[in-house]
Design a protein that fits this description.
The structure holds three protein chains of three kinds. By secondary structure, chain A is an all-alpha fold. Chain A has ten helices and no strands. In chain A, helix 1 crosses helix 7. Chain C folds into two domains: 223 residues, Rossmann fold, CATH 3.40.50; 118 residues, OB fold (Dihydrolipoamide Acetyltransferase, E2P) (Beta Barrel). Chain C is an alpha+beta fold. The chains are: A mainly alpha, B mainly alpha, C alpha+beta. At the A-B interface, helix 1, helix 2, helix 3, helix 5 and helix 7 of A face helix 1, helix 4, helix 5, helix 10 and helix 11 of B.
Chain lengths: 233, 265, 368
């Protein structure tokens, strides 16, 4: 395989790893905050519904929403420029670049994580938290010794799902920068619809490459799925 | 009794989450209200443009019709299948479950390339109008959501007992399916349907690559020429998905609903 | 000198008052049970002591120090929950070791203590098993060992046996008591099972609707219940509503029948009272002519309930249903349908006034 394509695979994988990791951590934090004892129940319903919407919102509209937020004349960009004296674009940031794509992807990665990890968090019994506290453990110690180990299979499974989701994303990236973002899905589309260079075979080869990456991921997902059922009785 | 006050760390998480998720929406709203002349707030010109654009209506109609077609085909195909698997072939359930994960993870981009190859020999009417090829593709795309919804629905009723009771009273298979089973999985079927609706109304990749003019492709088209109108459209598209979700929530109330978006305590 | 004190603890959840100002005082090494039906506030009280909740008013004092504001992880108490509290990702051994690891004890010392404790609770052979591989009873033993590992000042148990089979329950409660006595650790135990509470506690506090009805030794609670609620809750009791006729001679009238009970002496005429008679004190004999004799009530046997060595008979009297416990060997002479006479003992009954609530601590000095 040629070098530029390998670069693209690497870039796509890199972005997928980052958004999957970020989605896992942030999604877990938010989901736990909403489900744990003490938080009003209605917030959970709101979060779940919103997550369902946000996870499906991916695509052109989402890309546009982030252009409106972080683009050159986006609301947040303008705010930072006028009120905080900081111009992200002067520092090399662009919403169409790698970081911009990652931030945008988070908008559907985090909700997906929330939806996937919520049942596992439900399985975290309040008694464990209280017993740990009773035995002298701090919050951090609880998570380290009990919380994360118990949730780990589910978290890993979710990570893989998020990775796959990000790796496959096409519409959002397309909406952000059309054909000028060098992600594998975009390139496939580019070669297939043939604006400048039509090369369906190349497109198919690239597609197959994607398929291989994802198949490997799926093969890792299945045993992890089975393990996570064990803790939950 | 459990404690009744919210943990401070939870508040922090929730506030930050709310900010991250709401700001882009607010930004889109503000953009959509900008006027082309002054570049500032506030005018409904973008919305008015959209509403008066014929293409807006034709593409929404197309997407909606496609959604309905996809839902119809999906239900026709999957309800009997899942029913049969639950009833007669429980061993196949995990297999189906695995198959349901595949379209979820295989990117639509790969899917569409593969499908276009697959259907190479199909008659031209299948290709020319979206109702053929694209609907078929969408059924595959919707399969995971439909399957998980229906599967959960079937799991929550006692399929064997209902079927046997119905048959012992003399009903045929068809009658059993239509009169006994269907009403009991109504909630699950509706849930899957609303999700499919949201998906089809938002699907861009396949439609764009197969050069059909659906609502999402229209948004992208407008995006390239009229940014403020595109903002209005984005917001509209978001509201459509919201409406579908709320309908799902509403339909699910008061019945043992499929553990789809929300887990039970 | 009181070791653990609960002073005027109050806790409300919105409009619902779970605890309405309770006072409890325990000596070092004492075993006290909080006993009551669901919703009486006993678990709320325990959770306040553990620190999982903060009282609206009142304080918790241990060995002279007020701990009300201290976080649960620093109160140095061991708690055994009702169920599901073992960490599923750790073996029994690792679970018990957890508290010691947090305190950064040395590994050798930890290992030693863990195996000591697991031996103490009778699980020396199952140390490497995971919770899902242990039966309910075994899990609770591990939970107990885990709570004791950190050598807590106070041991708290929240209905630890409720989720277990009946036979295991009896066995385990005796073991809990044995271990507690051996270690001399101050223990607060919550349960809704009165037999459990009575059989293993030094003192029992009966609670209802957020208040303590009575605190006393098990035998005090049984012989001399201070309020109608306690009388109903502890054991089975015959309740006869009556009116005092002659306070000097201790005569009351119940449903047209005159009865003499010592406990009625000193009461004023016309006072409405509740005469309480334990089932085992009601003597039965077949009635030949349907007429009562001295100090007795008439009725008909309607059911037999076999309870093992004793059979419980239900008798339909003129005014109320009576319950009498009869040795099973005798029961054939009292078949269902037989008219009987039930003798009410003159001494040994208890009387409660229905017009006011009496004090709820200690036995009534006027009781016999």
């Amino acid at each position: 395989m040629h070098q530029p394509y390998l670069d693209q695979y690497w870039l796509t994988i890199k972005i997928s790893l980052i958004t999957a990791g970020g989605g896992c951590v942030l999604g877990l934090g938010i989901a736990y905050a909403v489900i744990r004892e003490g938080t009003p129940r209605f917030l959970r319903t709101i979060l779940t519904t919103f997550s369902g919407v946000a996870a499906n919102f991916a695509g052109i509209p989402l890309a546009f929403a982030f252009i409106a937020t972080l683009g050159t004349i986006g609301i947040v960009t303008t705010f930072m420029r006028d009120h905080l004296g900081y111009d992200p674009y002067a520092h090399g940031f662009t919403v169409f670049g790698e970081t911009g794509v990652e931030i945008t992807y988070m908008y559907f990665q985090i909700p997906l994580m929330i939806l996937v990890i919520a049942p596992a968090i439900d399985g975290l019994r309040q008694e464990w938290r209280e017993a740990a506290s009773n035995l002298g453990a701090s919050s951090w110690q609880f998570w380290r010794h009990v919380g994360v180990p118990v949730l780990l299979p589910s978290i890993l499974g979710a990570f893989i799902l998020l990775f796959g989701n990000s790796f496959s994303a096409y519409a959002t990236a397309y909406g952000l920068a059309g054909n000028s973002v060098f992600l594998v899905p975009i390139t496939i589309g580019f070669y297939y619809s043939g604006n400048v260079l039509s090369d369906p075979h190349l497109a198919q080869a690239l597609a197959f490459g994607m398929f291989v990456v994802l198949a490997v991921m799926m093969l890792l997902y299945i045993p992890l799925q089975r393990r996570s059922a064990r803790w939950m009785r | 009794m459990r404690r009744r006050w919210i943990a401070p760390s939870a508040v922090v998480w929730l506030v930050v989450a709310a900010a991250f998720f709401l700001i882009p929406l607010i930004a889109t709203l503000l953009f959509s209200l900008k006027s082309i002349q002054t570049g500032k707030c506030c005018t409904g010109a973008a919305y008015s443009f959209v509403i008066h654009d014929d293409q807006f209506w034709s593409t929404i109609r197309l997407s909606f019709q496609l959604a309905l077609e996809t839902i119809a085909i999906s239900l026709l195909l999957f309800v009997p299948t899942v029913y049969l698997v639950h009833l007669k072939m429980p061993r196949l359930r995990p297999v189906l479950g695995f198959m349901a994960l595949v379209p979820f993870v295989v990117p639509p981009i790969v899917l569409v390339v593969g499908l276009l190859n697959l259907y190479k020999g199909a008659p031209s009417w299948f290709y020319a109008k979206p109702y053929g090829f694209l609907a078929a593709a969408y059924v595959i795309l919707a399969f995971p959501y439909m399957f998980f919804a229906l599967d959960a629905g079937f799991r929550s009723i006692d399929v064997h007992t209902l079927t046997e009771a119905s048959q012992s009273l003399g009903a045929s298979w068809l009658t059993t399916l239509v009169r006994v089973i269907l009403p009991n999985i109504r909630v699950a079927a509706l849930g899957g349907s609303f999700l499919t609706l949201a998906i089809v109304m938002g699907e861009f990749t396949m439609a764009s690559l197969s050069a059909f003019r659906t609502f999402p492709t229209y948004i992208q088209f407008v995006n390239e020429s009229q940014p403020y109108a595109a903002a209005a459209l984005s917001l509209l598209s978001f509201l459509i998905v919201w409406a579908a979700m709320l309908a799902l929530l509403f339909v699910g109330r008061g019945r043992p609903r499929p553990a789809q978006l929300a887990a039970t305590r | 000198m009181a070791y653990l004190e609960l002073q005027e603890l109050r806790r409300a959840f919105g409009p619902v008052v779970a605890l309405d100002g309770i006072d409890v005082s325990m000596d070092r090494g004492e075993f006290l049970s909080l006993l009551g039906p669901s919703g009486c506030g006993k678990t709320t009280a325990l959770r306040l002591v553990a620190g999982f909740d903060r009282p609206d008013a009142g304080s918790i004092v241990i060995d002279g120090k007020d701990v009300t504001r201290i976080a649960p992880s620093r109160r140095d108490m061991g708690m055994v929950f009702q169920a599901y509290s073992l960490f599923p990702n750790m073996t029994a051994e690792q679970n018990v070791e957890f508290g010691l690891r947090i305190r950064k004890n040395r590994r050798a010392a930890r290992r030693k203590r863990v195996s000591e404790l697991l031996e103490l609770v009778g699980l020396g052979h199952a140390v490497k098993r995971y919770p899902h591989q242990l039966s309910g009873g075994m899990q609770q033993r591990v939970a107990l060992a885990r709570a004791l590992a950190i050598e807590p000042r106070v041991l708290l148990l929240d209905e630890p046996l409720s989720a277990l089979d009946a036979k295991v329950r009896v066995q385990l409660r005796e073991e809990i008591r044995r271990i507690q006595t051996q270690l001399g650790i101050t223990t607060l135990y919550v349960t809704h099972d009165q037999e459990e509470a009575l059989s293993i506690s030094d003192h029992v506090a009966v609670m209802s609707s957020g208040r303590i009805e009575q605190i006393g030794t098990p035998s005090e609670m049984y012989r001399a219940p201070a309020t109608p609620f306690v009388a109903e809750f502890i054991g089975t009791m015959n309740r006869l509503e009556a009116v005092v006729v002659d306070g000097e001679r201790g005569e009351v009238e119940h449903g047209g029948t005159r009865l003499t009970v010592d406990a009625a002496r000193g009461r004023s005429r016309g006072e409405r009272v509740l005469v309480l008679v334990r089932p085992e004190l009601l003597e039965l004999e077949p009635s030949t002519d349907g007429v009562g004799s001295d100090n007795s009530l008439v009725g008909e046997v309607i059911t037999h309930t076999f309870l093992g060595s004793v059979t419980r008979l239900k008798i339909l009297g003129r005014e109320a249903e009576l319950i009498a416990d009869v040795p099973t060997a005798r029961v054939d002479s009292l078949p269902v349908g037989l008219p009987v006479i039930a003798h009410v003992p003159v001494a040994g009954t208890r009387l409660l006034s229905l017009s006011e609530r009496p004090a709820s601590d200690g036995p009534d000095p006027g009781d016999r």
